[in-house]
Amino acid sequence: MKNTAPNLAIFSTIFFWGSSFPVMSFILETSTPLILGAGRFSLAAFISLLWCLYNYKKKITLNHFLRYFIAGFVGIFLYNLFLNYGQQNVSAGASSFIVNCNPLFTVLIGFLILKQKVSIIHWLCVLFCLLGVCIISIDQEGGLEFGSGSTLILFAAILTAIYFHILKPLVLIYGAITSAAYTILFGTLPMIIWFPETYNFIINSNSEVQIAFLWLSLFPTTIGYLTWTYSVGYFGANKASLFLYLIPPISIILNFLWYDKDPSLNTIFGGTIIIISLFCTYFLIKTKNQV
User: Fold this and answer.
1) Are 10 and 231 in contact (CB under 8 A)?
2) What is the rounded distance in angstroms from the CA atom of residue 179 to the CA atom of residue 171?
3) Number of domains composing the chain
4) How far is C-alpha 156 from the geometric centre of its chain's CA atoms?
């Protein structure tokens, strides 16, 4: 029973984040990446501000404030900037597979910065994962050319991995809610200049677009980032990120059910390779922990 809350949190995150890719693709048909980002985080930032004001007595050191700012700038602002621009030319299913390569990059960052050991088999998993990305990118606009949608989303995956490691120590000290609130708040600050344009766009859009923005801002963003931050604090960055391999199948299913869009064969084939790579990575970490 003691694992009920963490498991519920991680699987809620997976479902909500899985739903975000089809919804984002739908919104980008009439919106711009900057409007999408500002609209997605406006509600979450407002709620985060209320929480920070309510919890102002909780003392946070200046160094930790700076760390929250970096986490928000990298994991919220830059991540969504690259993801949104990339998803303009990449399907929802393909983008969900590419961006969720981040568990492999999470471990590699641990190797490069934290001096954690990485086995040869793990390096092979990384290569197979990148092979899967290449296969998916074949039928996406621009392929794997520098600056194409696929490469922008791949860079977003790297930013997410960096964000995981930046945030984890803060969650252990201040808790999931406070960490999520400050991260979202600082990550949304650079988007403020697009708020007026975003407001006018949403007000003048049809009800389907407005509902899509409401879903995206409330569930994948406000609730999803909270449950994810809690999961990272409980499971750790490496282990929690491995659950994300379930997101692409959910994205593909929801994209078909909601918008009647089928994934390409390249997306399915390349995505399968990516998932196998992630499974192997999970098996390696689990075996290592049992030794």
Assistant:
1) yes
2) 6
3) 1
4) 8
Residue 142 Rama label (left phi>0; alpha psi -120 to 50; beta): left
Token code pair at residue 48: 């985060």
Phi and psi angles of residue 244, each rounded to the nearest 5 degrees, phi first: -70, -10
* CA–CA separation, 133 and 99 (whole Å): 10
Dist. CA 40–CA 213, nearest whole Å: 6
238 near 110, Cβ under 8 Å? yes
Tokens at residue 102, please? 């981040």
Task: Give the model confidence (pLDDT) of 184-219 as tens digits.
Answer: 999 999 999 999 999 999 999 999 999 999 999 999
Tell me the per-residue pLDDT of 124-176, one tens digit each, with 9 for 90 and over.
777 777 777 777 777 666 556 666 788 898 899 889 888 888 888 898 888 88
Q: Is the pTM of this model over 0.85?
A: no
At residue 205, what is the residue type?
S
Average pLDDT, the chain: 83
Per DSSP (E only), the strands in the chain are: none
Q: Which domain holds residue 220?
A: 4-290
CB atoms closer than 10 angstroms to residue 57: 5
